[in-house]
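Example record

The entry below shows one chain as it appears in the dataset: sequence first, then structure tokens.
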Amino acid sequence: MELVRILVADERPVSRFALRRLLETERDFRIVVEASDAVATARLGRQFKPDILLLDLALTRRKELQTPGGLARYFSPTRIIIMVTAVERTQIIEAFRLRAHGLMLKTSAPRSWVTSIRSVMACDYCIEGQSVAVLLEAFHDVVMRENGAIPPQDYGLTRREMDIIAQIVTGRSNREAGQEFSIGERTVKHHLTSIFNKIGVSNRVQLALFAVNNRLLQEPTSVSEAMAVEEEA
């Protein structure tokens, strides 16, 4: 069983102690180091390079963690879950802008923590207890406020695949995407399979999250029904 090495960064000792007791009941989870401030988080994150960084949202607002390109690039290859006392739309947006991989309530049930960490380790994204409507509103705000984009060739994506991604993120079905480009629904599915393989996702929801989190879209795009279409598929 491969060990998941975790750094917990929180100003409150009681919070760090509670997480240690909760997470180390899992045989493959190990909290290798703790940090109580932004300076220690930055230093220990680079020194230990843990698999997971559980990071109090308050610490991300300190200048020591204000990094261009977002926290995910700063701490790479560590995957980051932001911890909050209440999950609100503005916090979801802030977590995405920081390039975090998840957002969790500090009061989440033990099983939620375990499930979320395992999902993030599997290159998925997790957001605690949010409805589709709230998530879509957050995606919309992130996309509309972001400037610039990572060039498509960074992921080996073709121009047509970028067109398909734009259609999917705006909530179009395979059939609607095909009609937009005068191609068959089966061809759209073929493009989606190629996209999933290239960027390491497995469904439309993950694709929408990845596109927003990695600034794939070169034009501001409204994220509308991507999750709803996924549920109907």
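Notes for this example: The two ends are 34 Å apart (CA to CA). Confidence is low (pLDDT under 50) at residues 147-153, 219-233.
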